[in-house]
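Example for tutorial group B:
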């Protein structure tokens, strides 16, 4: 999320801005951390978010500003790839092969029809997935490996509908932030160069996280609700600038 939110803000900073180099270094550091996790779900979310940002910022894709953090990332990554060739070859092969890890993320979707048939409205209850399937897996902490599987299995149709409604409301409020940014740009308010990139960054971050959680379990973490609070507050804070313009 920080990568996708900060990138459009960085790309729209004015020439000579004191934060330009610092943001480039921070984005490069965050990208190195993301790559170091070797997470396929994290990479999926990053790719989806990058595709969202590609629409408004496609003209800056090969600019010197965009290539600076990528160059800072390439140096340590290429160094590590060269000195640990065998390790990365084994890891990349295991990540790309459809083995036990990949099949686990896909097989959990098979639980959904069975549970919805038995408990369609409210599911098994929050955090009961591992308890219910302990006799099958032999583990007490075996998670569903997908937030949407957890949502349907533990929350049923009612819980899923409520959460999707909440996500829709967050997206709607981010859409309001987009409209505020366009309104500020129309009257020549310099705040538009902050509001519009922030709105695009939050859009990319939310859609990227939603994509990653098809094989991930992070939408229930505290960070996500902090993000939602910021997304909901953004149109309130910058909406005042429109009324005063």
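The residue assignment follows.
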């Amino acid at each position: 999320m920080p990568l996708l939110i900060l990138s459009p803000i960085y790309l729209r900073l004015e020439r000579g801005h004191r934060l330009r180099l610092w943001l480039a270094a921070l984005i490069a550091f965050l990208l190195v951390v993301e790559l170091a996790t070797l997470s396929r779900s994290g990479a999926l979310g990053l790719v989806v978010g990058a595709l969202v940002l590609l629409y408004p910022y496609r003209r800056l894709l090969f600019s010197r500003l965009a290539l600076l953090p990528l160059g800072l990332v390439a140096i340590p990554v290429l160094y590590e790839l060269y000195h640990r060739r065998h390790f990365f070859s084994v890891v990349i092969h295991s990540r790309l092969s459809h083995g036990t890890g990949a099949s686990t993320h896909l097989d959990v979707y098979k639980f959904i029809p069975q549970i919805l048939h038995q408990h369609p409205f409210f599911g098994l209850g929050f955090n009961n997935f591992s308890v219910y399937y302990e006799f099958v897996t032999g583990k007490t902490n075996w998670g569903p490996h997908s937030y949407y599987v957890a949502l349907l299995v533990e929350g049923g149709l009612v819980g899923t509908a409520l959460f999707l409604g909440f996500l829709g409301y967050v997206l709607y409020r981010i859409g309001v932030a987009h409209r505020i940014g366009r309104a500020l740009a129309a009257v020549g308010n310099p705040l538009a160069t902050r509001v519009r990139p922030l709105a695009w960054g939050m859009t990319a971050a939310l859609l990227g996280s939603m994509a990653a959680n098809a094989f991930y379990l992070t939408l229930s973490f505290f960070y996500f609700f902090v993000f939602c609070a910021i997304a909901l507050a953004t149109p309130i804070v910058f909406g005042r600038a429109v009324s005063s313009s």
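The chain has a mean pLDDT of 86. Compare this with the pattern of hydrophobic and polar residues in the output above.
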